[in-house]
């Protein structure tokens, strides 16, 4: 129970379904004085108190489990290491993979519980052979299957998502109000929970350190200098401060970040159109694709709120390669690509390299 309206209603529905329910809030920070001050994260003391009030209203036991050490090593330290390597990580994906459906599930099963129930908007269904599959929620705008793409067959067998068939978040809020839950109108969380002020650049600068480096074009020609690579993102246009204009007079964009050489590579907008992505760090969500060495049709989604794009995928030499029918834009190494067949989540991988429409290859 994060302290939000979704997990509160999910718990209420689980109680109504006749399950023996225990509410658990995850303590993920070693800063006990943290309170929400304008940020909308999901792991503050205020959130813990909201979760406790909801559990009391539902008449279920409530506990706070301390996973702060595991969270630091598996999510926060990983976030820092990925940026140091020039990649753009997704900490919410890592939290689902390493904390909510690994550490939390392992402890729950060891204590004799059957499943972890969350307020994510997604559905687990059985195919004709009884194999479990993860599918998109019925409410497209609130579908959260993307961030659950890291789940395995074993984890799906012990996961419950009671909100998956609810067509509107407004209906969830109305239901929470009818149940007397104080979080009915609580805003959605959207910040990185361990960066409560939202200043990712400043947070990284304090931990990674910054130093002046070169801004170069794709041929390696120096165009200017920068104050530190943590301040840049793939696709960025503003704030480059390049004194030398491009030969065609058109603006330039960040194409690649190379922390090892403290270099930022810029180029034309067309170089951000990606025609191929690939990665070796991949997992299947449920049953694996049959004969993945042969090309198979999928849809690929590279951000939680991005539209899926038709594509073909193929496993080649241990690397999952995806070629979209239409170019993807501003893709960064370290992002998670989730592949779908219809509404079903087939699997996911961490993007390790990209190939642009101008044959610019970027790796990290």
From TrEMBL:
Q: For ATP, which residues are the binding ones? A: 26, 119
| One GO MF term | tRNA binding
List the subcellular locations: Cytoplasm
Which superkingdom is the protein from? Bacteria
Q: Where is the active site?
A: 95 (nucleophile), 193 (cysteine persulfide intermediate)
What reaction(s) does this enzyme catalyze? S-sulfanyl-L-cysteinyl-[protein] + uridine(34) in tRNA + AH2 + ATP = 2-thiouridine(34) in tRNA + L-cysteinyl-[protein] + A + AMP + diphosphate + H(+)
Question: Could you tell me which residue ranges the tRNA-specific 2-thiouridylase MnmA-like C-terminal domain spans?
Answer: 277-347
Transmembrane segment boundaries: none
> An example Gene Ontology cellular component term from the record?
cytoplasm
Supply the alphabetized keyword list: ATP-binding, Cytoplasm, Disulfide bond, Nucleotide-binding, RNA-binding, Transferase, tRNA processing, tRNA-binding
Biological processes, Gene Ontology terms: tRNA wobble position uridine thiolation
The EC number(s) attached to this protein equal 2.8.1.13
Fetch the Gene3D superfamilies from UniProt: Adenine nucleotide alpha hydrolases-like domains, HUPs, Translation factors
Annotated region (Interaction with tRNA), positions in chain: 142-144
Domain tRNA-specific 2-thiouridylase MnmA-like central, residue spans:
203-267
Task: Sum up the protein's function in the record's words.
Answer: Catalyzes the 2-thiolation of uridine at the wobble position (U34) of tRNA, leading to the formation of s(2)U34.
| Family, as annotated | Belongs to the MnmA/TRMU family.
In terms of NCBIfam families, this protein maps to: PRK00143.1 (NF001138), trmU (TIGR00420)
Q: What is this protein called?
A: tRNA-specific 2-thiouridylase MnmA
Q: Which gene encodes it?
A: mnmA
């Amino acid at each position: 129970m994060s302290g939000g309206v979704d997990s509160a209603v999910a718990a209420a529905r689980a109680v109504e379904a006749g399950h023996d329910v225990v509410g658990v809030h995850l303590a993920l920070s070693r800063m006990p004085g943290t309170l929400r001050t304008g940020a909308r994260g999901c792991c503050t003391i205020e959130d813990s108190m909201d979760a406790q009030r909801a559990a009391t209203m539902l008449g279920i036991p409530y506990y706070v489990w301390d996973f702060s050490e595991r969270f630091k090593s598996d999510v926060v330290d990983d976030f820092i290491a990925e940026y140091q390597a020039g990649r753009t990580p997704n900490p919410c994906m890592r939290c689902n993979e390493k904390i909510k459906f690994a550490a939390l599930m392992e402890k729950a099963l060891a204590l004799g519980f059957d499943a972890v129930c969350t307020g994510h908007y997604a559905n687990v269904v059985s195919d004709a052979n009884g194999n479990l599959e993860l599918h998109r929620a019925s409410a497209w705008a609130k579908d959260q299957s993307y961030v659950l793409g890291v789940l395995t067959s074993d984890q799906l067998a012990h996961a419950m998502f009671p909100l998956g068939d609810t067509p509107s978040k407004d209906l969830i809020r109305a239901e929470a109000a009818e149940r007397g839950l104080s979080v009915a109108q609580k805003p959605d969380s959207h910040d990185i929970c361990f960066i409560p002020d939202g200043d990712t650049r400043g947070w990284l600068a304090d931990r990674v350190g910054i130093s002046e480096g070169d801004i170069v074009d794709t041929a390696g020609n120096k165009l200017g200098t920068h104050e530190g690579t943590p301040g840049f993102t793939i696709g960025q246009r503003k704030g480059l401060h390049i004194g030398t204009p491009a030969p065609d007079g058109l603006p330039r964009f960040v194409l690649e970040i190379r922390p090892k050489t403290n270099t930022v590579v810029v180029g034309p907008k067309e170089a951000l159109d990606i025609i191929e992505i690939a990665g070796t760090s991949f997992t299947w969500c449920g049953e694996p694709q049959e004969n993945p060495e042969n090309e198979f049709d999928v849809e690929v989604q590279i951000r939680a709120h991005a539209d899926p794009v038709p594509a073909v995928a193929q496993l080649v030499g241990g690397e999952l390669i995806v070629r979209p029918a239409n170019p993807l834009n501003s893709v960064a190494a370290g992002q998670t690509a989730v592949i779908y067949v219809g509404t079903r989540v087939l699997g996911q991988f961490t993007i390790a390299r990209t190939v642009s429409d101008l044959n610019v290859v970027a790796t990290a």
